[in-house]
Amino acid sequence: xxxxxxxxxxxxxxxxxxxxxxxxxxxxxxxxxxxxxxxxxxxxxxxxxxxxxxxxxxxxxxxxxxxxxxxxxxxxxxxxxxxxxxxxxxxxxxxxxxxxxxxxxxxxxxxxxxxxxxxxxxxxxxxxxxxxxxxxxxxxxxxxxxxxxxxxxxxxxxxxxxxxxxxxxxxxxxxxxxxxxxxxxxxxxxxxxxxxxxxxxxxxxxxxxxxxxxxxxxxxxxxxxxxxxxxxxxxxxxxxxxxxxxxxxxxxxxxxxxxxxxxxxxxxxxxxxxxxxxxxxxxxxxxxxxxxxxxxxxxxxxxxxxxxxxxxxxxxxxxxxxxxxxxxxxxxxxxxxxxxxxxxxxxxxxxxxxxxxxxxxxxxxx
Length: 366
Hints:
Keywords: Cytoplasm, DNA replication, DNA-binding, DNA-directed DNA polymerase, Nucleotidyltransferase, Transferase. Residues 1-119 form the DNA polymerase III beta sliding clamp N-terminal domain. Pfam families: DNA_pol3_beta, DNA_pol3_beta_2, DNA_pol3_beta_3. Forms a ring-shaped head-to-tail homodimer around DNA. InterPro entries: DNA_clamp_sf (IPR046938), DNA_polIII_beta (IPR001001), DNA_polIII_beta_C (IPR022635), DNA_polIII_beta_cen (IPR022637), DNA_polIII_beta_N (IPR022634). By secondary structure, the chain is an alpha+beta fold. The chain has 3 domains: 2-114, DNA Polymerase III, subunit A, domain 2 (DNA Polymerase III, Chain A, domain 2), CATH 3.10.150; 125-244, DNA Polymerase III, subunit A, domain 2 (DNA Polymerase III, Chain A, domain 2), CATH 3.10.150; 248-360, DNA Polymerase III, subunit A, domain 2 (DNA Polymerase III, Chain A, domain 2), CATH 3.10.150. 19% of the residues lie in helices and 44% in strands. It has 6 helices and 26 strands. The protein has helices spanning 7-17, 71-80, 131-139, 195-205, 259-275, 320-329, and strands at residues 2-6, 32-38, 41-47, 51-58, 60-63, 65-70, 85-90, 95-100, 103-108, 125-129, 156-162, 165-171, 175-182, 188-194, 213-217, 221-226, 229-234, 253-258, 280-286, 289-296, 299-306, 308-311, 314-319, 334-339, 346-350, 356-360. Strands 14-11-12-13-26-25-24-18-22 form a 9-stranded antiparallel β-sheet. A hairpin with a 3-residue loop joins strand 12 (165-171) and strand 13. It is elongated and about 80 Å long.
């Protein structure tokens, strides 16, 4: 194998595939990046057996071949080279020689034959989704996935395609986030994608805004293609909770409130709650104002915000973290908060559209 390419292009490609390389694995081969030089292109692949990422760049290939290089070492070497052409070759002892301007570095390699092949995903169920919409949908749901590995299905996001509607749903037992979007599709499909996969896709999508992301789904795997990058991930097995049954259909109090004002007030009120390890904020809703209070051994916070109230006065308390995380991803200026009783879930929706619904369970007040 013998090829050369610009340092910047190579470093960018390494940084994309390195996201799927596991540092915790006991298998040495999985700590490496697979390189294959062929027909004017260099293919780089990383995998942890759950997620695999492949990226292709143009290269001047003088001799075709493939090799595996330790990802961390390779990344650090290329990062510290000058912004010039990098030449990489392999000698008869399978040692890798990296040349750039006046620098020469020799490192050991591993055999490419030991590197696991990425699963082949048949591109039958394929959907094109604008990158900006998909990234927003991920941002507004993925934070509500569960961290509890004992219920693996909840560590992912339900992706549900119903004709021309795309629903993404995440829940962790304390809150639920639902984001709706439009998609060009005529069929129905339902899969659960791991949160880790969606976070990696979101990072890769920052690279190139213009073209849509191509999503291909099978029963066990998802293939996500963005330009010259492919990400293949295992999907989560099992039955996702019927989220429609959880969402309340009626309410007794509806509050219209400025999103930013509420976020700022809860963040200030949560400062004391966080110090006291309770994270608790109490809402007292009556007339034309919402009073937010927080108490701990360190002191008290009192906040008052103007609102428009429709329905009953109410006292209710929430974990401030669950409210703050939702308010941070809502881009609308005003929201509705609908409530039934002091022990029933609260629902947050934007005032001007119905593409986002967030449910959060209250904390019982003593």
